[in-house]
Amino acid sequence: MFVHNKRLQYTVRVAGPNPGLANLMLEQFGGPQGELAAAMRYFTQGLAEDDAGRKDMLMDIATEELSHLEIIGSIVGMLNKGAKGRIAEGVEEESELYRSLTGAGNDSHITQVLYGGGTALINSGGIPWTAAYVDSIGEPTADLRSNIAAEARAKIVYERLINVTDDPGIKDALKFLMTREIAHQKSFEKALHSMQPNFPNGKLPPEPQYASVYYNMSQGEGDLRGSWNQGPEWEFVESPQPAVDGGDGLATVDLPKGEKKVVEQMAKRTMSDPTVDPLTGADLGAGAALTKKG
């Protein structure tokens, strides 16, 4: 059960309308790193979670992310207040109104015309929100790592938004939201490491002959060695050659007798003749026919 409190989790104070900034803020409303994506990611994970502690944590954080969505949406709404009225009532000359919407050099005129200055579920480029942003896979050790990374990406977006506004009230609210991303990272990491062991992900063990091998697949100037590919843990293969399993590196399939005959028949029918030099459409377009005729 959800019960909505009409007060925001954090007070929003906007100094004045700014439709260009409102458009940028939509990145955290309907974008891939935004609050709706986070809420849906954790909410769906929580519904499927069997561990009581992780379920409680996921539902708490999912609900808080909806509160953050409301904060961002309120900021967008306040920033669009003036432009929303002007475009709805047509109180300015067309050229003046257009300049007021595009003065920040972004696409705020699109969101104003299409959505009337409303808080649309799109990102700052106008792309609609999609459930494809929710990347849960149903394995806690994998999902928690993905959640940690998602919170880290959201923090970076908030940092960038803070850097593009000089509105002190908006900066203050964005710093709160940015800091909550850090708190959520910590909770997810604690939950991850409360499961021991938690690596590798899932149940099946790795194939031991490949689990600690580093293949130098990108060779040449710039090759570097470090803890990621050297030391007692690693077997470093300088020049890996197909196939690393000792086979010939070719793909084969054992076909039933009837299918094998059909495949051979198709291969024979579609076989190319390397001795033929056909006249092609490209040749005709380049004037080959005229050359031969002349």
In words, what does this structure look like?
There is one protein chain. With 294 residues, the protein is mainly alpha-helical. 53% of the residues lie in helices and 2% in strands. Strands 1-2 form a two-stranded parallel ribbon. The longest helix is centred in the first third of the chain and has 28 residues. The chain is extended, with a radius of gyration of 29 Å. It starts with 18 loop residues before the first helix and ends with a helix.
How many domains? The number is 2
Supply the CATH superfamily name of the largest domain.
Ferritin, core subunit, four-helix bundle
Shape: extended
Tally the helices. 13
CATH fold description of the largest domain: Ferritin
Number of strands: 2
- SSE class: mainly alpha
Radius of gyration: 29 Å
Q: Give the strand content.
A: under 5%
Strand order of the largest sheet: 1-2
- What is the CATH architecture assignment of the largest domain? Up-down Bundle
Distance between the termini: 85 Å
CATH class of the largest domain, please? Mainly Alpha
- Residue share in helices? 40-55%
